[in-house]
Amino acid sequence: MADNLQSSIVRDFRQTLLWPIQLMTDHSSLNAVNYPWQVLKDTPNSPWVEIQDEFLQASPHLSETRYQEFVTFLPFAQRFLYGEGKHGREAGGYGESPIHIFTRSDINQVRITLHGDQQPLVLRVSHVELYFFFDIDVAMLAFEVTGKDLPLKSAMEIMYRLGRTYPNYWDDTGEAGHCAQLVEWLDQQGQVIARSDYEDKARYLAFVKENHVPCVSLHWLALMHPLVPHYSDQEGALRYREIEYQRMPLMAYLSFDDVSQLSRGDLIRLGLVCQPWHSETLPFTEQFLQAFEKNNCYDRYWDDARQDPWSTTRIMCTGQNFVVVGSHQHRVFTNERTGIKRHYQNQYFLLFLIAHFQKAALLMLSDRMVQAISRLNIQSEDSVKAFRSRIRNATAVFLRFTHRYWFENVSDQAVAKDLFSLMLKQLDSVSLFEKTRRRIMDMAEYLEGEEIKRQADTVVRLTVVTILGLIGTMTSGLLGMNLIDLTQSSLPEKLAYFAIVFVPVSLLTFYTVIKSRRLSLFLDALSNEGAGLGYKLSKLRSVWVGRLDDH
Fold first, then answer.
1. Helical axes 491-514 vs 429-476, angle rounded to 10°
2. Would you call 59 helix, strand, or coil by DSSP?
3. pLDDT tens sequence across 129-162
4. Is the bond into 504 cis (omega within 30 degrees of 0)?
5. Residues 6 or more apart whose Cβ sits within 8 Å of residue 548
6. Which of 46, 180, 194, 500 is the most exposed place for a label (fewest CB within 10 A)?
């Protein structure tokens, strides 16, 4: 079998990286950032500019492409993606839309130097967008590059190496594992805006040692600015940290002259985003890959027999990756208005965005729970109060997320419905949702139980004080009887008698409150008809002596 790495040409190549990040803010603080998109919008000299959605523009009509995208989704998904228009603005809440999108236009190209290649690859940067979501401390970076007439080997290398935020390791020569030798952002004049530093091992090792979190490469830091990593020394109101694995989730669209020339090994490497290798080999064992087509391929438009000329489109989804391959000459694949290419750029991208946003939000909520537990010091009342506040906040956010952003189906159109279900299955999002819900609800139930216990304890204390206060009440009632005639006494004498009764009774009341827990145990023992006199006397003695026994 011929090796396709150089002979197979990708006529149209598109790759979209999606980077979920967690926005770091303490909502219990007075300086909490509740609307990060507004902070970014108000930041001076920021390269990010908010996009005015087509729905909000002055044009009386929506574009046909956007209309096709809109009607793909069910009403609740439409409200999530597009808001409620003027009706939402009038109703309050998050206003017209819960999503705020920013873009930057200064990065025009990306230049990638691969290990062992003489000439770098230059791709056009099609989109750089940053998505914020109302009420959820998650942002998503979408970074799309495009290229023409690339050898299959180059396309595989780009897919495998471009979306790396930091190296996994360094080999004996000092080269960063799984990363490109050099990645550079270029402006419209071809000048370098930022470049990677994967080879700077010392920087990565020192950062992880000091902060216990991964260190992000310089070119990604520059791209995200003015957002800065949470543990960075840089100043910035918007701080973030990574949620997932160091290789960003990606989408890819590859158009070939004849996709049927690709071997099974080629297709599997594209679907799993593996390093390029000989076409006649598989990236893993046959036993491991025997269910690849069943579990990871959506072959509605694919026929191994090639009996129909249009049946040459394969969609592969592993959760982390979403890859579409097809033949360049078929309009069902390349049509800019209604073909697979258009769906890839619009509907499929939104499906991928929703699925990964949901997973990122659930991971963010889980991380909040871990932070709340790790900061809890049960010996400190302030720490316990802060813990209760964080858990209540996380519970409220989860409930709002559930009813506003969580859905297991977003469309009744067959392809969109099937693909979204496949994404959720591969990401295991439903299981993650159930685990997160149980953890948060368990913690909420614990706090509710603690609140009920405190209230019950308060009632017991008041009951003890009331019972023992009867003694003082009856005694002080003597003042209201005629045993002591104070009618002829002067005002100072009356005040003296009042003080003689008031001060001891007050002291007795306060002392009773102090000993109320111990006294409640004594009263419980006193009311126990089956207990002996010795047991009751021991409980009376424990009011003043010994450790408190709640049992």
1. 140
2. coil
3. 999 999 899 999 999 999 999 999 999 999 999 9
4. no
5. 517, 518
6. 500
